[in-house]
Amino acid sequence: MTDYRKIQLALQMFERLCDNAKSDHYWWLMKKASLIRFHYWLEENEEKYGGPEYDPQNSLKMEKMTPQQSFYHILKGLKPDERALFVKAVNRIRERGTFRSGNEAVKVMYEETESFLKENPESILIFRGTLQNYMVVGRCADMLFEKLGWQTATVVYEDVAYSCMMLSECSLPVIWEHFGHETSHSQLDFDYMAFEDEDCVTLALQQMMIDYARLRLGNRTIHHPTLELIGSYVTVVEQGIKKRVRFPFFELAEDRFCLFSSKGMPHFVVSDHKWFVGMTEVSFVGCLADMLSFMLDWYEGKGLQIGQELELFGAMCFNDFCEKKGKYPDDILIMDFNGTFVSYGYDAEWLAGKFRIPLWDRYLGDDESRRMVMMSEKDVNRIMRRCPKVMLDSSKMRDSEDRMALRPNVMNGGLLDETKYKKASVTKRKDGKYVIKATLNGKELPPTVLKKNLADLYVSYEKDGLKDLVMKQLLLYVYTWRKKRKKKK
C-alpha cells in the first residue's frame, strides 16, 4: 500500500524550499526530473544534508533539523514506488509552472460534490488523483470531520476558499467501515494541491494512519513499548498546559489509542473518534503514526501476532523471578535483570504501596498478566537502606522497557493521588454490610456503604502495607471519582 502521507509532506516542504529562488533545490523546476537524477541527487547531497542518521520510525528528529535536512530525511525514507510518484508530481508542477496551478481542480470537485449530494445527501463522494491520493471537498469533508474527527484543510482558487480533505489509500477501509455503500468514487486528473494550512493536511493524514491501524486490529487489544519514543521526552498539551512527558508504553484497541507515561499515567490520543491531539502536536502524532505503520507491517511480515514475542519473553522473566523467590519465601524480592530492577505479585504490591512506585500489569500471553513494579538503581538503594527484609538477587537474562508489554494497574490511582484523607476506617455493621468513613481537611465525610466486591477486596488484604493501599483506593472511589461522575451526569 502506497503511503501518500510521506509524498504529501515531501511536496509541501519542496514548495517551501522553492519559494527561495536561491535554493539549490530550485533546479528541479528548471530541468525535467527523473528517477536517475533523483537517486544521483540523494547520493550527491548525503554529506551536506544527511543530518542525523536516517530513521523512518522517528520523525521527532526532524524538529532539530534544518529545512534542507528535513527534506532530505523524508526523501530518503520514500519507497521506490513513492519516489516515482514524487518525481511524477514534480514534473507536473514544472509543466504547469507554479505549485498553485493545480488548485483549479478543486472547483470542479466542489461542483461535482454539490450535484452528487442533491441526490445522495448522506453519502461521501471521493475523488481519486494520479499520485495514489484521494480527496473529498465541501460537505463531504465536513461529514468525515464530524464522523471520524479527521482535520479539514482549505484550498483557495480564484479567491474562493474550499473546505477539503486530502486522503491516503489507508483511509479508504476506515471510511468504508463507517459509511459502507454510501461511498462513491470518481476519477479526476489532479495531483498536488497547495493548501493554505499545510499542518492541517499533515495532521489528517496521520490520523488516518492511526485509525487504519486500529481497524486492522479487529477486536484485539495490544500492549506494546513505544519503540524509539521510549527514551524521548515529547511536548504534549493537557488542559491547555504544555508538558514535557516520556511515554514508554501504549495500548491500542479498536476503540482507543492510549499512551502511558513512565509514572503510569494515561494520555489518550483518540477514544472512539474523539481526538485529544491538536495542531501543536503534529510532529508527535506523525511519529506515532509512523511507529504503528512500521510495527504492524513488521509483525505481519514475520507472521506473528502483535506483541507475541514480548509476552513470551515476559513469561520467561516471571518464571525466573518465581524460581528465585523460592529462596526468600518470607522476604520481599527485587530481581536485577542486567540493570533492570523488577518485582512481581505481592512483593510488587508491597513495594508500590510503601514507596509510591507505579504498579503495572505485565502481559505474559493467553490474556494472563501479573502485577509488576520497575525501579531504578537509585530506588533500589533507597529501599534496601530502609527495609532490611528486602532482598536483591540477579538473573542472567537481560530485561528492559522495550521488551515489556505493560499496562498501568488500576491501583495506581491510590498510589499517585495527593488527596490527604485522615481517620479513615472500614467497619462492619450488624446487617453484615461494610461502611467506610473518613475526614478531609478537618471535615467528617458522610459514612458510605461499600459494595460487596469492594468490601471483600479490603477484607482479603490482611497485611498492613497492602491494606493501606486498598484503603486509599476505596476513599478515592467513594469520595472523589464517584462524586465527579455524578456531577458530569
Topology:
Layout lengths: L3 H15 L8 H4 L4 H10 L1 H4 L17 H10 L3 H17 L8 H15 L4 E5 L5 E4 L1 H10 L4 E5 L2 E8 L3 H9 L3 E5 L10 H20 L4 E4 L7 E6 L2 E6 L2 E5 L2 E5 L5 E6 L2 E2 L6 H21 L5 H18 L6 E5 L4 E4 H11 L3 E7 L2 E8 L1 H10 L3 E5 L11 E3 L3 H5 L4 E8 L5 E7 L2 E2 L3 E2 L2 H9 L3 H25 L1
Parallel strand pairs: 1-5, 13-17
Antiparallel strand pairs: 1-2, 2-4, 3-4, 6-9, 7-8, 9-10, 10-11, 11-12, 13-14, 14-16, 15-16, 15-18, 19-20, 20-21, 20-22
Helix pairs in contact: 1-5, 1-6, 1-10, 10-11, 13-17, 16-17
Short description:
The chain is α+β, with helices and mostly antiparallel strands and about 500 residues long.
List keywords for this structure.
22 strands, 44% helix, six-stranded mixed β-sheet, 17 helices, five-stranded mixed β-sheet, elongated, 489 residues
